[in-house]
């Protein structure tokens, strides 16, 4: 049943009960509260699976079976209304040939997102405006905003950003694991190259502002994030990041920089990628086995369903012989609660990195998202706080980005 209908019925039931003689009203259960919210995650890497032969977003999967974390049945179970579906491209050579290959990969990803929406129009709806999210949720459909993790596919032609904007892009992160033409990554083994944004990266910020695209600082080096905060005319998001106060990792942010982000109006969405949450024991044999498996993979989109199934069977065998050691839900909440203490509920959200390496014990797929609501309620956060955390904060950033772009046309 559609969420808005369920919420209305719940309210009517409570009102009817309260009107009886001697009856007292009771607050909604935590389950009903979670269902009543517009629940979004700002970093869904699931488009990588949409191009994978044999994967059907409409059917129920399990992480143990095929390692996926998002599908419609599990979204329904976890009360996930949708969020930002990611165009991700691995960082390749910063060359014209590299740019062309990455551009083609990115176009296939965005086309896969559009195909998902078009093929299941009763279930999904493309969102391009800030107000779309709540309207789509009220219709009982799943919200599909589009983001780009790693702007590398744009090459040196920023007019491509406008092309992707016309295809629905509303969030962009300049870098990923390594430095590229736009600036410095937090995790490049060779260190920094530009000391923040490159000259082209500064033009990217300006172009994104002009179009009304939110800038994403996850994966960026601290100096690049500082540059974006200073240069951007609208607030910056960290779509999937953690805190150095809990675990000192380059992908995380320290309290001083987090306060700068908050002071500028920005928002941080908390990541559930285990190796960014705590120090995990190294297993050289597991790493070697996975390295060999990845070398076999090639272009998974060009494989047959049987070939993909064979690769997944090999992965299961590796996991059985060399089990993964995962961070726990408490490790995740340690980051979440510290970030809330520093940034406040008006500047915090959820971006768990589903289908991109995220997931912790007790929360390995989106079906488990109500655990976050339950824990935050137990910590004393209010219904309004939860509404902000789950959706309002990122929608505010979308509105500010849109407003600035519109102001340039007046």
TrEMBL record:
InterPro entries: Metal_Hydrolase (IPR032466), Pept_M19 (IPR008257). Residues 1-22 form the signal peptide. It comes from the Bacteria. Pfam families: Peptidase_M19 (PF01244). Keywords: Signal. This is Dipeptidase. It comes from Alteromonas gilva. The lineage of its organism: Bacteria, Pseudomonadati, Pseudomonadota, Gammaproteobacteria, Alteromonadales.
């Amino acid at each position: 049943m559609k969420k808005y209908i369920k919420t209305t019925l719940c309210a009517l039931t409570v009102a009817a009960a309260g009107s009886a003689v001697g009856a007292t009203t009771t607050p909604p259960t935590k389950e009903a509260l979670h269902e009543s919210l517009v629940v979004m995650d700002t970093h869904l890497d699931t488009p990588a699976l949409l191009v994978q032969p044999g994967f059907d977003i409409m059917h129920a999967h399990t992480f143990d079976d095929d390692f996926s974390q998002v599908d419609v049945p599990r979204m329904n179970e976890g009360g996930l209304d949708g969020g930002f579906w990611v165009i991700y491209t691995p960082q390749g050579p910063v060359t014209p040939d590299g740019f062309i290959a990455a551009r083609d990969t990115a176009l296939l990803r965005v086309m896969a997102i559009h195909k998902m929406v078009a093929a299941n129009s009763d279930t999904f709806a493309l969102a391009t405006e800030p107000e779309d999210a709540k309207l789509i949720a009220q219709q009982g459909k799943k919200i599909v905003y589009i983001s780009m993790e790693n702007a590398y596919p744009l090459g040196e032609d920023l007019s491509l950003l406008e092309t992707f904007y016309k295809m629905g892009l509303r969030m962009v992160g300049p870098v990923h694991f390594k430095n590229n033409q736009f600036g410095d990554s937090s995790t490049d083994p060779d260190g920094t190259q530009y000391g923040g944004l490159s000259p082209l990266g500064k033009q990217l910020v300006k172009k994104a502002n002009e179009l009304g695209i939110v800038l994403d600082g996850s994966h960026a080096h601290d100096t690049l994030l500082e540059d974006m905060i200073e240069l951007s005319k609208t607030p910056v998001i960290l779509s999937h990041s953690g805190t150095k106060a809990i675990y000192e990792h380059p992908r995380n942010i320290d309290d001083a920089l987090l306060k700068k982000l908050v002071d500028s109006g920005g928002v941080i969405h908390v990541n559930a990628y285990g190796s960014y949450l705590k120090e995990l024991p190294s297993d050289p044999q597991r790493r070697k086995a996975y390295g060999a498996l990845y070398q076999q993979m090639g272009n998974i989109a060009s494989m047959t369903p049987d070939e993909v199934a064979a690769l997944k069977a090999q992965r299961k065998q590796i996991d059985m012989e060399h089990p993964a050691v995962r961070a726990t839900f408490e490790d995740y909440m340690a980051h979440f609660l510290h970030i809330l203490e520093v940034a406040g509920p008006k500047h915090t959200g959820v971006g768990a990195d589903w289908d991109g390496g995220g997931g912790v014990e007790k929360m390995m797929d989106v079906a488990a998202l109500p655990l976050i609501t339950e824990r935050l309620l137990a910590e004393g956060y209010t219904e309004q706080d939860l509404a902000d955390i789950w959706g309002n904060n990122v929608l505010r950033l979308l509105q500010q980005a849109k407003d600035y772009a519109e102001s340039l046309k007046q």
